[in-house]
Amino acid sequence: MQSLIGTGVALVTPFKKDFSVDVEALKRIVDFQIDNKIEYLVVLGTTAESATLSKSEKELVINTVIEANKGRLPLVLGVGSNNTADVVEELKTIDLSAFDAILSVSPYYNKPTQEGIYQHFKAIAQVSPKPIILYNVPGRTSSNMLPETVIRLANDFKNIVAIKEAAGDMVQAMQLIQNKPKDFLVISGDDMIALPMVLAGGSGVISVIAEGCPKDFSEMIRLGLQRKVDPAYAIHYRYADLIDMIFEQGNPAGIKEVFKSLSLCENTVRLPLVNVHDDLANRIDTFVKNL
After folding, report:
1. Is 215 a catalytic residue?
2. CB 242 within 8 Å of CB 210
3. 92 Cβ contact list (under 8 Å, min separation 6)
4. Which of 135, 180, 239, 256 is catalytic?
5. Each residue of 221-272: pLDDT tens digit?
6. d(C-alpha 160, C-alpha 9), whole Å
């Protein structure tokens, strides 16, 4: 899966002020990523506020991204749930012809054991027509997918090709990198430690901040993959404060504020999310304009 090496971005779903999906803004955002040399696009992940989208809105987002992309970049689709049967059924019925892989989050809320996580992804692997990227994000799921579970899945199912690792734990990330099968990809899901993970042997990042600064952030990851440490870290530190700011009051409220500063879309989010406070909005706007 060479197409998944480098920088992928977890696309937002832009909304108009009336909370409807802003199709034209989504097209602008897709073009912005492509024009600035991102490697691939991730559709309907957490950053897309997928939990608040209806089935018809999800179809609208998918079709809009496919149309705007025009086959220029690989596409990854988020397909996940805490109900294994729902994911299996969706994978049996959804049209994945435009996508290179799926991204599937570890089951949330239920707090399954490691064996439960393994059986969940086993069921998905047995029906998925596309390669699978596991997604470990304990801060959202309240359940950490341990390295031994990931390695077991990677060894048992050839269509499980990567993990988006967002535990924010470098020791755990290094354990994955050390023990993974040769061609299995460990992808950072945490913008602040994306570069250290790449330098430790990771394959890139699925990023939020890269949506707002795609040219620089994707170049940082490429430099990291080439082991050009000093210039890569120069970019990292240029954006470190902004990374902190966009997550200070939740994702995607922060990155949508960046997009507003860039005149790409409104900063509208759907409840239960709310806009960032005025102070943070001003700090983000000032940072973006000073770049």
Report:
1. no
2. no
3. 127
4. 135
5. 999 999 999 999 999 999 999 999 999 999 999 999 999 999 999 999 999 9
6. 20
Please pick, among 164, 180, 256, 260, the residue that the annotation labels catalytic.
164
Question: For residue 89, which of 114, 55, 65, 116 has the smallest C-alpha distance?
Answer: 55
Backbone φ and ψ of 54, nearest 5°: -75, 170
Task: Round to whole Å and give the CA distance between 94 and 54.
Answer: 15
Cα 155 from Cα 244, distance rounded (Å): 36
Residue 186, C-beta contacts closer than 8 angstroms, at least 6 positions apart: 162, 163, 165, 173, 176, 177, 180, 197, 201, 202, 203
User: Is residue 198 within 8 Å of 225, Cβ to Cβ?
Assistant: yes
Q: Which helix (H) or strand (E) holds 207?
A: strand 204-207
**Angle at alpha carbon of residue 2, lines to 114 and 5, rounded to 5°:** 70
For residue 257, list its beta bridge partners: none
289 belongs to the catalytic site: no
Report how far apart the first and last C-alpha atoms of the chain are (Å, whole number).
Answer: 34
**67 in Cβ contact with 30 (< 8 Å):** no
Encoded amino acid at 254, one letter: G
Per-residue tokens: 234: 């120069």
Residue 291 pLDDT > 90: no
Residue 40: closest CA among 189, 193, 207, 190: 207
Rounded to an integer, the average pLDDT of 64-68 is: 98
Give the length of the chain. 291
